[in-house]
């Protein structure tokens, strides 16, 4: 007999992908509204600081997150942009007019949700339905006998990989140390 948690855990990667796609698409649309004035609003003049540049980050990062390409870095950058937006525009503790700390009052509710949603995507990965997951399986993938952890990792069902302990991933700089 399976529990409710066990049933839902089998859907964690597709649900993460669905969350990533919707959040990325909404972020992308925020960028299109600022850059092109589409689907609603008016376009911001090119180069206007900081809104036009924020729109460019939202446009590019939103598209990458939606497709699932370079997802972790795009989500990390998007999360950082939203953190800056909250502290600079919604609750400016260092400069600007005094505003309420509470996001419900200062209009920063959606900004905080984007910030921590993208931070979760950066930490959890893109999920199974992503260009990153397809690239990983085509270009090398996991080495035989190596256990890869994460939401987009293929499940090892038989063989030595099924019982082996997870292998520590080495950092980017370790590839240059030989």
UniProtKB/TrEMBL annotation:
One of its GO terms (cellular component) is plasma membrane. Its main location: membrane. It is a multi-pass membrane protein. The chain crosses the membrane at residues 12-29, 49-66, 73-91, 111-129. The keyword Membrane applies. It is found in: Cell membrane. Keywords: Cell membrane, Membrane, Transmembrane, Transmembrane helix. Belongs to the DoxX family. This is DoxX family protein. It comes from Mycobacterium lehmannii.
């Amino acid at each position: 007999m399976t529990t409710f948690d066990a049933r839902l855990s089998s859907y964690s990667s597709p649900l993460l992908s669905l969350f990533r796609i919707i959040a990325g698409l909404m972020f992308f649309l925020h960028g299109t509204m600022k850059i092109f004035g589409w689907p609603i609003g008016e376009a911001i003049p090119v180069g206007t600081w900081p809104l036009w540049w924020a729109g460019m980050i939202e446009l590019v990062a939103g598209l990458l997150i939606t497709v699932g390409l370079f997802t972790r870095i795009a989500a990390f950058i998007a999360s950082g942009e939203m953190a800056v937006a909250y502290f600079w525009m919604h609750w400016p503790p260092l400069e600007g007019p005094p505003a309420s700390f509470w996001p419900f009052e200062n209009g920063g509710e959606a900004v905080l949700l984007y910030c921590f949603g993208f931070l979760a995507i950066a930490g959890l990965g893109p999920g199974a339905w992503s260009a990153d997951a397809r690239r990983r399986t085509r270009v090398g993938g996991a080495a035989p006998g190596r256990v890869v952890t994460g939401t987009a990792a293929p499940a090892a069902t038989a063989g030595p990989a099924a019982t082996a302990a997870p292998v520590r991933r080495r950092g980017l700089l370790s590839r240059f140390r030989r």
